[in-house]
Design goal:
heterodimer; A: about 180 residues; two-stranded antiparallel sheet; B: about 475 residues; four-stranded mixed β-sheet
Chain lengths: ~180, ~475
């Protein structure tokens, strides 16, 4: 049997979910005997592959780039997992929603700068007016909450997804865990 | 016809970034930029939150170095409360910060950069990752996994959670250290010492084969800044900052958290969501400086622990004055890991380490406060203002990646100029350009507090924007 293809993606989040994924430590190395990590911040693929079996997505959708990415990921993934509270519910990145992007950018690049005050606009992606969780853009197959979900949660959940065994998420983790 | 090469995303990097390289009509590199593409707005959306919530909120800036944010934020809050935290709380926090230093440095070196160093800059991109490292040299790969686990497990033992522990609070920590946990950490030390010894030995062998890279990886004079104790030994958690010049002479000393904004300014470039910090008296960009392991080792005279001191003496032999090539960030990182393990052992022998007095309490006694600490990748400063009810009215954060931003951009340009000739490049060449950025271990999460995402792809565009060539891994 050929190995399953696993992708991990980081949208608007803090990378804590990816760090917790790495916190599987030696168990991650063992897991790599069952799955190929084909796309991830920790491997050198630049382009999302044609077809992956499981995509773990951290972070909310906050910029025009994030929106393009999540649609592409959905189109090329059999199973899409919303990994962590930002992907599941918006969480901390969505705290800017009542304020709006202009005030955020003004504070960072005009008020809190002492030289060349300006709003970056070259190459960097435009911010969406409202930060939203990924299920508001695409269908999500599995919601894995937590800030971040623990390494044990990742190990149990991924093992179940790879082997096709039943997965009881509320027994593993919760929002804010 | 001018052209632009784009690396999007930069991979094996802690965040979202792109590199663009501009070529002139002769195919020579004219300019190059490193773009951070995410911004989240912590400085604004924290307004109105109670100040005592700030450490937990600010930890969410970064899942890689949340402990540094917890500590800098708690210190800013303690300045507002005007309290001094109990000795034991200070020691426990110091230990957690050291544990984070070990785990984050292990991530940077073994998970992100070792694939280049062990397998080669030109090796198969499909194998160029931590799994490839473990397959090619299991004892080395597993030493790296073990060192990262060592740091993360200490954080978990102290704070009950590996990432975003709620244990660091304004006034100290929520819970003292139990004897059983102390003993467990002591039991973990021999394995950690064995792993770092193996890593240092391997690094020194392999560095000899990267002489060409060492020459062009952000290898230029600059200013350096970092925390230093009064006895000129290294410090990550307390004390004040020192800024030195390219020859190693002190430019500014005793920069406390509250003096930081007098001395350091931030400039904006239109191509990056991460700002560019500079030393105000010299202006921007002349006042640009570097932070992080290389800067810290260039500044200090001693590590303050025996084994790391020996390593520092050897490191200082690399140059007559400050060590300049960013490639040596890797070396400095390993020395700091060794120091971290030794210092954790030393702290555990403090007779007061199990003391139950670990938290001071107070309300708002000042309407403004700042706190600073060394994150693994460099200096971090949090600065808040509150109203009389303790609600945040303003916040500013200066993170390490912003302070290395100018040097990373110059370093990318230096490497691109050296390697891209006649408009020609290979995947391996572009990987070297990315490896310059990796050496700095920038944290793009952090830089996107106001910053963003940083993947790398390379596209060659003609002057009218047409795609001429593209390299995708």
């Amino acid at each position: 049997m050929s190995k399953l293809k696993l992708a991990t993606v980081w949208l608007d989040g803090c990378s804590g979910c990816h760090m917790s994924f790495l916190d599987m430590d030696e168990r991650l190395i063992q897991l790599a005997e069952l799955v190929d990590v084909v796309y991830s911040p920790i491997v050198d693929a630049k382009e999302f592959p044609d077809q992956v079996d499981i995509a773990l997505v951290e972070g909310a959708v906050a910029s025009v780039d994030d929106e393009k990415k999540i649609k592409k990921i959905r189109a090329h993934s059999k199973l899409l997992v919303a990994m962590g509270d930002c992907a599941v519910a918006g969480n901390v990145p969505s705290m800017r929603n009542p304020i709006g992007p202009e005030a955020i950018l003004d504070r960072a690049y005009i008020e809190n700068a002492s030289a060349q005050q300006q709003i970056p606009c070259v190459v960097v992606p435009k911010l969406l007016r409202v930060v939203r969780p990924i299920h508001e853009f695409v269908k999500v197959d599995v919601f894995l909450p937590g800030c971040p979900p623990s390494a044990d949660t990742f190990h149990t959940a991924l093992t179940a997804l790879v082997t096709g065994e039943p997965l009881d998420i509320p027994a593993l983790t919760r929002f804010g865990a | 016809m001018s052209q632009t090469i784009t690396i999007d995303p930069v991979t094996r990097l802690e965040g979202h970034g792109k590199i663009t390289i501009q070529l002139n009509g002769q195919g020579e590199v004219e300019d190059a930029h490193f773009h951070v593409t995410q911004v989240r707005g912590f400085e604004k959306f924290s307004e109105g939150r109670p100040f005592y919530e700030m450490p937990s909120l600010m930890a969410r800036i970064c899942g890689i170095c949340p402990v540094s944010h917890l500590i800098a934020s708690a210190k800013a809050c303690e300045a507002i409360m005007s309290v001094r935290i109990p000795h034991t709380a200070a020691q426990l926090r110091r230990m957690m910060n050291l544990a984070q230093m070990v785990q984050s440095h292990a991530l940077s070196l073994f998970y992100l950069s070792a694939p280049d160093l062990l397998l080669g800059m030109e090796s198969d991109p499909k194998m160029r990752n931590v799994f490839g490292v473990v397959a090619a040299k299991p004892e080395l790969g597993l030493a790296g996994v073990g060192l990262r686990r060592f740091g993360q497990h200490i954080i978990e033992l102290l704070g009950n959670k590996r990432i975003h522990p709620g244990w660091v609070v304004p006034g100290g920590v929520t819970e003292p250290l139990a004897a059983a946990k102390r003993d467990e950490i002591l039991g973990m030390l021999p394995e950690a010492y064995a792993n770092i010894a193996l890593a240092l030995k391997w690094y020194k062998q392999v560095a000899a084969s990267f002489k060409p890279e060492i020459e062009v990886f952000a290898n230029f004079p600059s200013l350096y800044m970092g925390l230093v104790n009064e006895d000129e030994s290294i410090e990550f958690t307390d004390a004040a900052l020192r800024l030195i010049d390219a020859k190693g002479a002190i430019v500014e000393d005793g920069i406390t958290a509250s003096r930081f904004t007098e001395v350091i300014g931030e400039a904006v470039e239109n191509y990056s969501y991460t700002k560019f910090a500079y030393y105000k008296p010299l202006g921007y960009p002349e006042g640009s400086y570097r932070v992080g392991p290389l800067a810290r080792l260039n500044i200090v005279k001693s590590m303050g622990t025996p084994r790391a001191n020996q390593e520092l003496a050897e490191f200082k032999q690399l140059a007559n004055g400050p060590v300049e090539s960013a490639f040596y960030y890797h070396h400095a990182r390993l020395i700091e890991v060794l120091y971290g393990i030794e210092k954790i052992e030393e702290i555990l022998t403090d007779p007061l380490i199990l003391d139950k007095q670990v938290r001071a309490t107070a309300g708002v006694n000042r309407l403004e406060g700042a706190g600073q600490a060394e994150a693994p990748r460099g200096t971090l400063n949090h600065h808040y203002k509150v109203d009389e009810d303790g609600k945040i009215t303003w916040a500013n954060l200066v993170i390490a990646t912003g302070q290395n931003n100018n040097a990373m951009n110059k370093g990318v340009l230096q490497a691109a100029k050296h390697y891209v000739k006649d408009g020609k490049f290979t995947e391996g060449i572009l990987n070297r350009v990315e490896a310059v950025v990796r050496a700095f271990d920038p944290c793009l999460s952090c830089s996107t507090h106001a910053f963003g995402q940083m993947p790398l792809a390379l596209t060659l565009l003609s002057a009218d924007g047409e795609v001429v060539d593209q390299v995708i891994r």
